[in-house]
Amino acid sequence: MAEPEEPLRVAVVDDHPVYRDGLAVLLGSVSGLVVVGTAADGAEAVALAREEQPDVVVMDVQMPVLDGIEATRRITAESPSIGVVVLTMSEDDGTVFAAVRAGARGYLLKGADQEEVIRAITTVAGGGAVFGAALARRIGEFFAAGPTGPETAFPQLTTREREVLELVAAGRSNAQIAAALYLSPKTVRNNVSNVLTKLQVTDRAQAIVRAREAGLGR
What we know:
By secondary structure, the protein is α/β, with parallel strands linked by helices. About 50% of the residues lie in helices and about 15% in strands. It contains 10 helices and 6 strands; from the N terminus they run E-H-E-H-E-H-E-H-E-H-E-H-H-H-H-H.
């Protein structure tokens, strides 16, 4: 007789308790899946993944403390064997590509039905990737364009952070960046701060040097 297969171990991460608990109960009721833990923010998710080493993490994007994109990046960097399925309300390209760059292997909209979610988990656990049809087409078009030097630099940055870094490297002030990207000065300050942290540099001048070395801001 064949040995019964080990169940797939899944962690659920979402800051909305009703959605999180509902999804955990739903997945826990499926034969072949076991929920090993839940987390309410990205920092908890990283700690949970480190401790439990699940096969798959179902990850919300918009969360306090640490967002789902950054949590995904940390989890996949520490444990490449863990597959992350990102679950979000948003279908915008920036979020999709940020998730892909962070190491997510699945991307589902929160309206996805039970079968879609389960199929995504089992596919990602098996080493595959899952993106909705519309998303898959856009990702295909994006990557078909081929890598273009600066585009592949700094994969840890979100699309918005890359845009801000590009303008910083071009010598623009925060006020000029805010005007160019139609953002508030506070949002620009936060993005610049995130960029400095992610590039592990202490000030704007160092960020400009790193960016220009990579071909940005020319």
